[in-house]
Amino acid sequence: MNKQQKQHILNFLEKGIKLDGRKLEDYREIKVEKGFSENAEGSAKVTIGDTIVTAGVKLSVESPYPDTPDKGTVMINAELLPLSNPDFESGPPSIDSIELARVVDRGIRESGAIDFKKLCIKEKEKAWSILIDICPINDDGNLFDASALAVVAALLETKFPEYDGEVIDYKKKTNKALPVDKKKIPTSCTVLKIGEHFLVDPNTEEEKCVDARLTVEVEEDGTICALQKGGDNPISDKDIEKMIDIGIKKSKELRKHIG
After folding, report:
1. Domains by residue range for the chain, with CATH
2. pLDDT digits over 222-258, tens only?
3. CB within 8 A of 29, min separation 6: which ones?
4. pLDDT tens, residue by residue, 101-122
5. Pairing verdict, β 73-78 and 126-138
6. How far is residue 154's CA from residue 258's CA, in Å, rounded to a whole number?
7. Sequential DSSP letters for the chain
8. In whole angstroms, how large is the CA radius of gyration of the chain?
9. Do residues 27 and 252 touch, judged by C-beta distance below 8 A?
10. What is the pLDDT of residues 89-102, one digit of tens each?
11. For the stretch 150-164, what's the b/e string if a residue is b when 16 or more beta carbons lie within 10 angstroms of its beta carbon?
12. Distance CA 234, CA 232 (A)
């Protein structure tokens, strides 16, 4: 983004509003739809303004890792398709898609929301593996928060398929849910710094002129379970404190959409 475009955005921020007229700490309208896919064990679609992200959960029985013989596993992938944003390219995972997946993954793991021991079927031999795919349908900014919300909603909606030594039919789901502690499940708020201003839920134009960002992942009681810094510019201790305060406050609003 050139200097004139950034200055145009800064002029708005100086007035306490974003390009679309929202206040700096206001989210666009948020909508969460669960169970949109019949082929996944759990799924959710999250819409934040014009940003649309889907998340699907698949379960399979695998051999546990040698260093965690009594635990199941989780893996999160993100695919940024050109259909959602012309800046994305087809091919191997980009740095942006890898970062998106890792930020969401870190919040899930560090929160301890999933009891991985309960995913073990037989120690050292069989355990449930959770594979989560994130796929933006339209990117108009703030993929981090939209993706994290979609993954959480999909996990809470997931049901195990029938299993009798092996998965008999993935289309036949049981009523057994994943061992997820809803109080520990994290909500994610990404706070951006542009100039001297802090804001949440940017559109794509505002994201292009970000100086720094901090994704704050928070459990229900306000415990911070993960932080991820992005952007090219450094941030001070004072900035971090400000961004964390905003993240914790806004996460309470986001949690209302989990259901």
Report:
1. 18-255 (3.30.230.70)
2. 999 999 999 999 999 999 999 999 999 999 999 999 8
3. 47, 48, 49
4. 999 999 999 999 999 999 999 9
5. parallel
6. 10
7. --HHHHHHHHHHHHTTB-TTS-BTT----EEEEE---SSSSEEEEEEETTEEEEEEEEEEEEPPPTT-TT--EEEEEE---TTT-TT--SSSPPHHHHHHHHHHHHHHHHHT-B-GGGGEEETTTEEEEEEEEEEEEE-SS-HHHHHHHHHHHHHHH-EEEPBSSSB--TTSEEEEEP-B-TTT--EEEEEEEETTEEEES--HHHHTT-SEEEEEEE-TTS-EEEEEEESSS---HHHHHHHHHHHHHHHHHHHTTT-
8. 19
9. no
10. 888 889 999 999 99
11. bbbbbbbbbebbeee
12. 7
Structure token digits, residue 154: 């999909």
Read off the tokens for 42.
Answer: 């759990």
Residue 39 tokens read as 């082929």
pTM of the model: 0.95
